[in-house]
Fold each of these.
Amino acid sequence: MAKTRQKPDLLQGTLDLLILRALQWGPQHGHGIGVALRANSDEVLRIDHGSLYPALHRLERQDWVQAEWRVTENKQRAKYYRLTAAGRRQLAIERTRWSRLSAAIARVLGPA
């Protein structure tokens, strides 16, 4: 039987946390954010552009990220995103929420 590689589903709100975290490493264009998340998750997290870009636009509307057009290393125009002060505060809030949620899930899944 062929082994299929399943794509893990992200909990609602988790993508925002991951994007904010990726931008904590420095400004990046959308594709670069996806690459960074994939690389830093040992190739487990593969965020498709159909989810990534709407999330980036939502974060921009909430003033958690700011964007500006730049030229990439490949000489293409791309929108680069960076974390704002409000985004750094939101990242701290989201990390706390994630810690509480993951600890609760671990308790439920732990030994009976």
Amino acid sequence: MRPVLQAYVDSGKVNLVYKHSAFLGQESVWAAQAAECAADQGKFWEYHDLLFDKQNGENVGTFTKENLIAYAKELGLDSAKFEPCLQSDATLQRVTTDTNEGRQVGVSGTPTFFINGKPLVGAQPAEVFKSQLDAALGQ
């Protein structure tokens, strides 16, 4: 996926907007909240990627608040800011808003991408993204 991001996003041809879709239970909500707390420290993508590396099933204890705080420490985030952010649900509204927006446009699974308003559902090969993005760009 990195080559697609480099060719289209990093080059400025397209914008990537990430929205949470936290519908797999409480741990998915906490993980999304934690990612937003990391975003407040400029480390969203690093935290996001770490979460995907750590996942091993739905609601099996991987994304408890205690573990999410440990992951933040692993990345060197400021614990004095991260922990209260997560414990107080400071970012819950952002996550809820994203999830509700997704539901309103028919998102029922992840990943779901929208390219000029058209959904592209599921993990797709890079060539599919390139084809869809080229078509959207009129190339």
Amino acid sequence: MTEPTPGEIKFWDLAEPFLIRPEVTRSTMMGFPCLRVDGKFFASADRATGDLLVKLPEARVDELVEHGRAMSFAPAGRRFREWAAIPYAKSRTWKRLLDEAHAFVAAAPRPPARQSR
């Protein structure tokens, strides 16, 4: 097992208050440790880079990228429009961005349940 990055350690430190809430759970997303609210992903830690990954409205992600506060999250070259990667060097903003991501995803309607065939 590899040692956690400083970013992953900070992510879990900031995640603790969220995990007290019954609607928030730990999980994995594409192999990354993550947080879910009501089953929907809202934040993760990139083990390779130590970046915080947060789900936010596309316009907010664009704003963060434009102002140099984040990078687009684009694993394997495919950009996820509602996901921003915030480097560890900007970790002072992580708590606020985790709060934003939680509020954004918690307010989103649940997708309809899949019909079984």
